[in-house]
Amino acid sequence: MIKAFSGGLLVLLLAGSTVWAAASIxxxxxxxxxxxxxxxxxxxxxxxxxxTVGSLNLYAQVGNGGPEAEAWPTGPAAGTGVDGPAITGVxxxxxxxxxxxxxxxxxxxxxxxxxxxxxxxxAAGTDYTPAEPFDEYNPLPAPEVPADGLLATVELDTTGFxxxxxxxxxxxxxxxxxxxxxxxxxxxxxxxxxxxIVDGTVAIASTLNSVTDGPWSLDSTWDDPPTxxxxxxxxxxxHAVDVAADGNAFSLDVGSGAVTVEPxxxxxxxxxxxxxxxxxxxxxxxxxxxxxxxxxxGKLVAESVQLDTGSKLEMEALGFLGxxxxxxxxxxxxxxDIIEGSLSGTFGSVPSGLLxxxxxxxxxxxxxxxxxxxxxxxxxxGDANGDRQVDAGDIEAIxxxxxxxxxxxxxxxxxxxTGDGFVDAGDIEAIxxxxxxxxxxxxxxxxxxxxxxxxxxxxxxSTVVMLVAGGLGVLLAxxxxxxxx
Length: 485
Description:
Strand content: 25-35%
Helix content: under 10%
Largest sheet: 11 strands, mixed
Number of helices: 3
CATH architecture of the largest domain: Sandwich
């Protein structure tokens, strides 16, 4: 039996000659939100054999115990206590293996509670004779449970802390180590369960700018750059996360942060993904092989996706969707599944218009309830406004931007149709090579027979020469006229 004393539980000695198996606790790394009370994580015990346990005395400590622990003989030296999150509870009963032990002694159910803010003690023992709760030689059977499962749920409060990382000790505290015990008949002191403890870490989630190492598991938040994945059960993102390698998470909560999936990468959520006031970003990019249908896209896949009011979707094209060049004309319509899962709610805001590199978002459809489909147009050279034709309106837009041969940075709407960031003669040649000026729509509406994307034949060299001689003269004349105006 475990005896209770005012200063804590009596440290019991190993008694008897029984040979027991071994158990182990690996605390792990647990990430917390800044300035928030009531955050919890779970601690598990495991065994590779038939180890059992009947009672425990658990000591948990954040860092070196903090300034308040300096008064303890085993605490930090004066002036060396480091403040950290407070441990506001350690539940060793709800859903735990110890909670399943019969005849738990009511004197131990609440444990001993807070020793100092960063040190907490919980304990649970066994009472075999209710009439004699401290009978140390009880003749009744000593019930035990397998030492495999949830050991405790820890609650912490990070109020006052915006960042930081602290050791989380079970093996060593100002009051001693955590111990597990067997319930053995006929002994005054209970034998300890052979136990290996690997202490862990608690940390306030830090900003994560880029994840480029893969494959990886987004089960927590890494420092930047990442080195190894951390285990966990839920990822809460209130920062900017750039996903540049395939990855997965058990569950994902995009709070006020942003998760952006780069081209040709998929972020898979094993269970639910919730997007609060945060942002899901999907980036697009061309594969450079000349096949529009093989355009690369980032993708979010989840069992369920909950879109809360205020949630946002961002999309950006980081390259052409296909091989768009003055030599090989390839442009047209493309539909991409960018989010898959059981959908509920709608995005509070979605992108519209030009996504970059002549890629226009024409429609976003989530009506199926199971997938978000982006309908995209890869515009042809010269179609600066994305209306599916090259006409005088586009030429006027180019001239209005007034970036031709100026060396100023430019995008598609300014007349940069080659993707080099400037408007110059190469862009004029791209327009002429496409041979679409004033020919009407070059792509029919979506769903028209045989026109999901169009690959336009390249004119013969002699034709290009004539077009350059005529069309370029018109453009330059318009440009000069505007300059004089």
